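Hi R.,

As promised on Friday, here is the backbone we talked about, encoded as structure tokens. Could you run it through your design pipeline when you get a chance and send me back a sequence?
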């Protein structure tokens, strides 16, 4: 048996049920949950000029027409006040901000009002009257002839939704740009970015241009002897050293191939940065072959890249020839 509620408990219950009506209608579009609260006798004023009727069955039929017709909304800042007009009849007046969810593709924000009357019988509350106030009646003291404040609220909400969509698009664009131009293993720029920047540099009138081609020595031996995870680790360490020396100016264009492009530094600064980079790599147990091209006139990214690439391969050939010579010498001894 349900315990009887005292006056204060009934008032709290009526507030909760009125909020329940709001949320089931605007947030969940759960018509049957609303109909489940209807009394045997019921009157209803809807938000529209034509929305009025009496009779539980008639109103239930109207509400069932709302299924899948109400866009998903969000509700906040709910306020309710309850008056007990008799021991078993309670009138709740309330208001809340209601706004369409951005996913609904409908943009509206209103300060909705509701009046609901509940009748208690056999310890159970039933709704016998619902009245929804439409926002066109939201006239402020400053409004004359038209609810301009309500229009401003709607505009602000629409602008907020647009700003949120813009932020999402910008975030997604940055992510796509990162995926397009960033090497996933090292975080350096990738070949796509290098090719794009080459096109821009071809058109630029540069007063200086330095290009360095860097190739990691011994990667295959590491992959074959210790596995590709160790090889990847070696590539990342190499990339980190290059990035430390040339942040924002370096690219990974192949498995063990890197390029540095700089149009700001003087020749001595550029060469010193290369030397310091190689020294730090040697301390870290990393061997690289490097080719360099620097000009302060007739700068040409294509010519200089080819020049640096040729120098790098000459150095790489010398490295492997020397290592093979050392290996043969060791065998003879």
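Update: got your reply. Pasting your designed sequence below so it's all in one thread:
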């Amino acid at each position: 048996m349900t315990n009887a509620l005292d006056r204060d408990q009934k008032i709290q219950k009526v507030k909760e049920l009125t909020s329940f009506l709001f949320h089931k209608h605007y947030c969940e579009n759960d018509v049957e949950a609303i109909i489940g609260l209807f009394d045997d006798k019921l009157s209803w004023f809807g938000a529209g000029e034509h929305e009025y009727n009496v009779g539980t069955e008639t109103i239930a039929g109207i509400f069932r027409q709302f299924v899948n017709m109400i866009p998903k909304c969000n509700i906040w800042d709910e306020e309710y006040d309850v008056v007990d007009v008799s021991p078993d009849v309670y009138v709740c007046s309330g208001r809340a901000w209601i706004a369409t969810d951005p996913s609904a593709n409908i943009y509206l924000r209103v300060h909705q009002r509701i009046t609901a009357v509940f009748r208690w019988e056999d310890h159970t509350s039933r709704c016998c009257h619902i009245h929804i106030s439409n926002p066109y009646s939201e006239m402020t003291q400053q409004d004359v002839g038209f609810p301009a404040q309500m229009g401003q609220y709607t505009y602000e909400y629409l602008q907020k939704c647009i700003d949120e969509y813009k932020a999402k698009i910008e975030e997604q664009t940055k992510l796509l740009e990162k995926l397009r131009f960033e090497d996933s293993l090292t975080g350096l720029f990738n070949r796509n970015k290098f090719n794009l920047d080459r096109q821009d540099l071809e058109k630029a009138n540069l007063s200086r241009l330095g290009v360095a081609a860097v190739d990691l020595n011994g990667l295959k031996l590491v992959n074959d002897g210790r596995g590709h995870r160790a090889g990847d680790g070696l590539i990342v360490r190499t990339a980190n050293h290059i990035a430390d020396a040339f942040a924002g100016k370096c690219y990974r264009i192949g498995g063990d191939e890197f390029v540095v492009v700089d149009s700001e530094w003087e020749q001595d600064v550029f060469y010193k940065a290369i030397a310091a980079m190689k020294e730090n790599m040697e301390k870290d147990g990393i061997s690289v072959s490097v080719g360099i091209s620097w000009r302060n006139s007739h700068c040409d990214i294509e010519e200089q890249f080819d020049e640096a690439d040729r120098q790098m391969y000459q150095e790489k050939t010398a490295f492997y020839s020397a290592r093979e010579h050392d290996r043969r010498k060791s065998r003879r001894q």
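One thing I noticed while checking it: The two ends are 103 Å apart (CA to CA).

Thanks again,
M.
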